[in-house]
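Researcher: Here's a chain I'd like modeled. Treat it as a single chain, no partners, no ligands.
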Amino acid sequence: MKTSGYETFKVEEKEGQAWVTFDNGPVNIQDIPMIKELDDLAASLEADRSIKVVVFQSAHPEIFIAHADTNFLKDMSTVAVSREDVELLDLQKVLQRISELPQITISKIEGFARGGGHEFALATDMRFAARGKAVFMQMEVGMGILPCGGGSSRMARQVGLGRALEIILSAKDFDADQAEAYGTINRALDADKIGPFVEDLANRMSQFPSDSIEACKRTVYASIDLPIKEALKEEAYWLYQATSKTPAIKRFTLADETGFQNDIENQRDFENLLMGLQGVN
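Model: Modeled as a single isolated chain. C-alpha coordinates:
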Protein backbone atom coordinates (compact mmCIF):
# COMPACT_ATOMS: atom_id res chain seq x y z
CA MET A 1 0.00 0.00 0.00
CA LYS A 2 1.02 3.61 -0.41
CA THR A 3 2.53 4.91 2.84
CA SER A 4 4.28 8.11 1.71
CA GLY A 5 3.48 11.28 -0.18
CA TYR A 6 0.61 12.39 2.05
CA GLU A 7 0.64 15.87 3.56
CA THR A 8 -2.42 15.80 5.86
CA PHE A 9 -1.61 12.52 7.61
CA LYS A 10 1.16 9.98 8.03
CA VAL A 11 0.85 6.23 7.40
CA GLU A 12 2.81 3.48 9.14
CA GLU A 13 2.47 -0.13 8.04
CA LYS A 14 3.18 -2.98 10.45
CA GLU A 15 2.20 -6.66 10.59
CA GLY A 16 -1.03 -6.48 8.61
CA GLN A 17 -1.99 -3.09 10.00
CA ALA A 18 -1.96 0.49 8.74
CA TRP A 19 -1.80 3.24 11.37
CA VAL A 20 -2.96 6.56 9.91
CA THR A 21 -2.08 9.62 11.99
CA PHE A 22 -3.83 12.87 11.07
CA ASP A 23 -1.38 15.78 11.14
CA ASN A 24 -2.94 18.66 9.23
CA GLY A 25 -1.78 21.74 11.12
CA PRO A 26 -2.66 23.74 12.93
CA VAL A 27 -5.87 22.00 14.10
CA ASN A 28 -6.59 19.08 11.74
CA ILE A 29 -9.24 20.87 9.73
CA GLN A 30 -10.99 18.52 7.30
CA ASP A 31 -10.07 20.42 4.16
CA ILE A 32 -10.07 19.57 0.46
CA PRO A 33 -6.46 18.26 0.50
CA MET A 34 -7.34 15.90 3.37
CA ILE A 35 -10.44 14.63 1.56
CA LYS A 36 -8.47 14.03 -1.63
CA GLU A 37 -5.71 12.22 0.25
CA LEU A 38 -8.24 10.04 2.08
CA ASP A 39 -9.64 9.06 -1.31
CA ASP A 40 -6.12 8.19 -2.45
CA LEU A 41 -5.53 6.18 0.73
CA ALA A 42 -8.80 4.28 0.22
CA ALA A 43 -7.79 3.35 -3.32
CA SER A 44 -4.48 2.04 -2.03
CA LEU A 45 -6.13 -0.01 0.72
CA GLU A 46 -8.71 -1.50 -1.64
CA ALA A 47 -5.85 -2.95 -3.68
CA ASP A 48 -3.84 -4.34 -0.74
CA ARG A 49 -5.32 -7.38 0.99
CA SER A 50 -2.22 -7.82 3.18
CA ILE A 51 -3.57 -4.95 5.31
CA LYS A 52 -6.35 -6.23 7.56
CA VAL A 53 -6.80 -3.45 10.13
CA VAL A 54 -6.60 0.33 9.69
CA VAL A 55 -6.36 2.54 12.78
CA PHE A 56 -7.01 6.28 12.46
CA GLN A 57 -5.56 8.52 15.17
CA SER A 58 -4.19 12.04 15.54
CA ALA A 59 -0.84 13.68 16.21
CA HIS A 60 -2.61 16.69 17.75
CA PRO A 61 -2.92 16.39 21.56
CA GLU A 62 -6.39 17.97 21.63
CA ILE A 63 -7.98 17.22 18.26
CA PHE A 64 -8.90 14.06 16.31
CA ILE A 65 -10.37 15.85 13.27
CA ALA A 66 -11.77 19.30 13.97
CA HIS A 67 -14.56 19.74 11.37
CA ALA A 68 -15.00 20.47 7.68
CA ASP A 69 -13.19 23.48 6.26
CA THR A 70 -15.41 26.58 6.24
CA ASN A 71 -13.54 27.78 3.14
CA PHE A 72 -15.30 25.31 0.88
CA LEU A 73 -18.57 25.36 2.79
CA LYS A 74 -18.90 29.11 2.26
CA ASP A 75 -18.69 28.52 -1.50
CA MET A 76 -21.69 26.18 -1.59
CA SER A 77 -24.56 27.10 -3.90
CA THR A 78 -27.43 29.20 -2.55
CA VAL A 79 -29.69 27.83 -5.28
CA ALA A 80 -31.73 24.75 -4.33
CA VAL A 81 -31.12 21.62 -6.41
CA SER A 82 -33.93 19.23 -7.35
CA ARG A 83 -33.82 15.60 -6.25
CA GLU A 84 -33.39 14.60 -9.90
CA ASP A 85 -30.25 16.74 -10.26
CA VAL A 86 -28.61 16.27 -6.85
CA GLU A 87 -25.21 14.56 -6.72
CA LEU A 88 -23.27 13.24 -3.76
CA LEU A 89 -20.79 15.63 -2.19
CA ASP A 90 -17.09 14.77 -2.30
CA LEU A 91 -17.04 14.29 1.50
CA GLN A 92 -20.00 11.89 1.32
CA LYS A 93 -18.34 9.86 -1.44
CA VAL A 94 -14.98 9.61 0.31
CA LEU A 95 -16.40 8.69 3.72
CA GLN A 96 -18.62 6.07 2.11
CA ARG A 97 -15.53 4.67 0.42
CA ILE A 98 -13.80 4.50 3.83
CA SER A 99 -16.88 2.73 5.21
CA GLU A 100 -16.80 0.14 2.40
CA LEU A 101 -13.12 -0.78 2.74
CA PRO A 102 -12.53 -4.55 3.03
CA GLN A 103 -10.33 -3.91 6.07
CA ILE A 104 -11.46 -3.37 9.66
CA THR A 105 -11.34 0.38 10.36
CA ILE A 106 -10.94 1.85 13.84
CA SER A 107 -11.10 5.46 15.04
CA LYS A 108 -8.94 6.07 18.13
CA ILE A 109 -10.29 9.40 19.35
CA GLU A 110 -8.32 11.44 21.88
CA GLY A 111 -9.56 14.96 21.20
CA PHE A 112 -12.23 17.07 19.52
CA ALA A 113 -14.24 15.30 16.80
CA ARG A 114 -16.90 17.73 15.70
CA GLY A 115 -18.88 18.05 12.48
CA GLY A 116 -17.07 16.29 9.67
CA GLY A 117 -14.56 14.86 12.16
CA HIS A 118 -17.38 13.10 13.99
CA GLU A 119 -18.86 12.00 10.67
CA PHE A 120 -15.51 10.51 9.70
CA ALA A 121 -15.50 8.46 12.90
CA LEU A 122 -19.06 7.28 12.25
CA ALA A 123 -17.93 6.01 8.84
CA THR A 124 -15.37 3.68 10.45
CA ASP A 125 -16.27 0.25 11.79
CA MET A 126 -15.32 0.85 15.42
CA ARG A 127 -14.76 3.91 17.59
CA PHE A 128 -12.91 4.14 20.89
CA ALA A 129 -12.61 7.41 22.80
CA ALA A 130 -10.46 8.67 25.65
CA ARG A 131 -12.15 9.97 28.79
CA GLY A 132 -11.26 13.55 29.60
CA LYS A 133 -10.01 14.18 26.06
CA ALA A 134 -12.59 13.19 23.44
CA VAL A 135 -15.36 15.72 22.68
CA PHE A 136 -18.05 15.26 20.02
CA MET A 137 -20.58 17.57 18.36
CA GLN A 138 -22.69 18.02 15.26
CA MET A 139 -22.95 21.80 15.00
CA GLU A 140 -24.44 22.09 11.53
CA VAL A 141 -28.01 23.01 12.51
CA GLY A 142 -26.67 26.15 14.21
CA MET A 143 -24.81 27.10 11.04
CA GLY A 144 -27.99 26.78 8.97
CA ILE A 145 -27.26 23.42 7.30
CA LEU A 146 -27.30 19.76 8.34
CA PRO A 147 -24.62 17.10 8.87
CA CYS A 148 -23.73 16.34 5.25
CA GLY A 149 -20.78 13.98 5.47
CA GLY A 150 -23.04 11.05 6.21
CA GLY A 151 -23.89 12.17 9.75
CA SER A 152 -27.59 12.71 9.10
CA SER A 153 -27.75 9.34 7.33
CA ARG A 154 -25.64 7.22 9.68
CA MET A 155 -26.57 8.62 13.09
CA ALA A 156 -29.99 6.98 13.52
CA ARG A 157 -28.65 3.69 12.16
CA GLN A 158 -26.07 3.84 14.94
CA VAL A 159 -28.06 5.11 17.93
CA GLY A 160 -31.78 5.17 17.05
CA LEU A 161 -34.09 7.96 15.98
CA GLY A 162 -34.57 9.93 19.18
CA ARG A 163 -30.93 10.04 20.18
CA ALA A 164 -29.86 10.91 16.64
CA LEU A 165 -32.23 13.88 16.64
CA GLU A 166 -31.01 14.96 20.08
CA ILE A 167 -27.37 14.90 18.97
CA ILE A 168 -28.01 16.68 15.67
CA LEU A 169 -30.60 19.25 16.79
CA SER A 170 -29.07 20.20 20.15
CA ALA A 171 -25.65 20.98 18.62
CA LYS A 172 -24.06 20.42 22.02
CA ASP A 173 -20.73 18.95 23.01
CA PHE A 174 -20.77 15.49 24.57
CA ASP A 175 -17.91 13.54 26.07
CA ALA A 176 -16.66 9.97 25.77
CA ASP A 177 -18.89 8.52 28.48
CA GLN A 178 -21.98 10.19 27.01
CA ALA A 179 -20.97 8.94 23.54
CA GLU A 180 -20.76 5.41 24.92
CA ALA A 181 -24.20 5.80 26.49
CA TYR A 182 -25.60 7.14 23.22
CA GLY A 183 -23.96 4.35 21.23
CA THR A 184 -21.92 6.55 18.88
CA ILE A 185 -18.73 4.87 20.11
CA ASN A 186 -17.93 1.30 21.11
CA ARG A 187 -16.25 2.16 24.40
CA ALA A 188 -14.99 5.03 26.51
CA LEU A 189 -11.56 4.27 27.94
CA ASP A 190 -9.29 6.05 30.38
CA ALA A 191 -6.69 8.15 28.60
CA ASP A 192 -3.84 5.87 29.70
CA LYS A 193 -5.72 2.73 28.63
CA ILE A 194 -6.94 3.58 25.12
CA GLY A 195 -3.55 3.15 23.42
CA PRO A 196 -2.80 -0.37 24.73
CA PHE A 197 -6.44 -1.43 24.25
CA VAL A 198 -6.60 -0.42 20.58
CA GLU A 199 -3.14 -1.85 19.87
CA ASP A 200 -4.03 -5.21 21.45
CA LEU A 201 -7.32 -5.32 19.53
CA ALA A 202 -5.61 -4.45 16.23
CA ASN A 203 -2.91 -7.07 16.85
CA ARG A 204 -5.54 -9.75 17.46
CA MET A 205 -7.79 -8.94 14.53
CA SER A 206 -4.90 -8.55 12.06
CA GLN A 207 -4.11 -12.26 12.48
CA PHE A 208 -7.46 -13.35 11.02
CA PRO A 209 -7.90 -14.15 7.28
CA SER A 210 -8.59 -11.04 5.20
CA ASP A 211 -11.40 -12.78 3.29
CA SER A 212 -13.26 -13.78 6.45
CA ILE A 213 -12.86 -10.23 7.76
CA GLU A 214 -14.44 -8.86 4.58
CA ALA A 215 -17.20 -11.48 4.64
CA CYS A 216 -18.11 -10.51 8.21
CA LYS A 217 -18.15 -6.81 7.34
CA ARG A 218 -20.26 -7.19 4.20
CA THR A 219 -22.83 -9.35 5.97
CA VAL A 220 -23.22 -7.13 9.03
CA TYR A 221 -23.53 -3.96 6.94
CA ALA A 222 -26.10 -5.62 4.67
CA SER A 223 -28.17 -6.58 7.70
CA ILE A 224 -28.90 -2.90 8.42
CA ASP A 225 -30.96 -2.43 5.27
CA LEU A 226 -32.26 -5.84 4.18
CA PRO A 227 -35.32 -7.74 5.39
CA ILE A 228 -34.29 -10.72 7.51
CA LYS A 229 -34.76 -13.37 4.80
CA GLU A 230 -32.65 -11.41 2.33
CA ALA A 231 -30.06 -10.73 5.03
CA LEU A 232 -29.82 -14.46 5.74
CA LYS A 233 -29.25 -15.15 2.03
CA GLU A 234 -26.49 -12.52 2.05
CA GLU A 235 -25.01 -14.26 5.09
CA ALA A 236 -24.98 -17.60 3.26
CA TYR A 237 -23.49 -15.99 0.14
CA TRP A 238 -20.57 -14.51 2.07
CA LEU A 239 -20.04 -17.78 3.93
CA TYR A 240 -19.22 -19.46 0.62
CA GLN A 241 -17.00 -16.57 -0.40
CA ALA A 242 -15.03 -17.10 2.80
CA THR A 243 -14.73 -20.90 2.62
CA SER A 244 -13.58 -20.66 -1.00
CA LYS A 245 -10.69 -18.34 -0.11
CA THR A 246 -9.63 -19.02 3.48
CA PRO A 247 -8.20 -22.08 5.32
CA ALA A 248 -11.52 -22.49 7.16
CA ILE A 249 -12.10 -26.10 6.06
CA LYS A 250 -8.57 -27.11 7.09
CA ARG A 251 -9.12 -25.56 10.50
CA PHE A 252 -12.51 -27.21 11.03
CA THR A 253 -11.08 -30.57 9.89
CA LEU A 254 -8.14 -30.28 12.29
CA ALA A 255 -10.46 -29.35 15.14
CA ASP A 256 -12.65 -32.37 14.40
CA GLU A 257 -9.77 -34.83 14.06
CA THR A 258 -8.17 -33.76 17.33
CA GLY A 259 -11.39 -33.72 19.33
CA PHE A 260 -10.82 -30.03 19.96
CA GLN A 261 -14.43 -29.10 20.60
CA ASN A 262 -15.13 -31.92 23.08
CA ASP A 263 -12.39 -30.97 25.55
CA ILE A 264 -13.74 -28.92 28.45
CA GLU A 265 -10.36 -27.24 28.98
CA ASN A 266 -10.43 -26.07 25.36
CA GLN A 267 -13.91 -24.67 25.89
CA ARG A 268 -12.66 -22.74 28.92
CA ASP A 269 -9.77 -21.21 26.96
CA PHE A 270 -11.32 -20.86 23.49
CA GLU A 271 -10.47 -17.15 23.17
CA ASN A 272 -6.74 -17.88 23.37
CA LEU A 273 -6.76 -21.22 21.56
CA LEU A 274 -8.45 -19.59 18.57
CA MET A 275 -5.28 -17.62 17.96
CA GLY A 276 -3.25 -20.84 17.74
CA LEU A 277 -5.42 -21.92 14.79
CA GLN A 278 -4.25 -18.88 12.84
CA GLY A 279 -1.10 -20.81 12.00
CA VAL A 280 -3.11 -23.38 10.05
CA ASN A 281 -3.16 -22.22 6.41
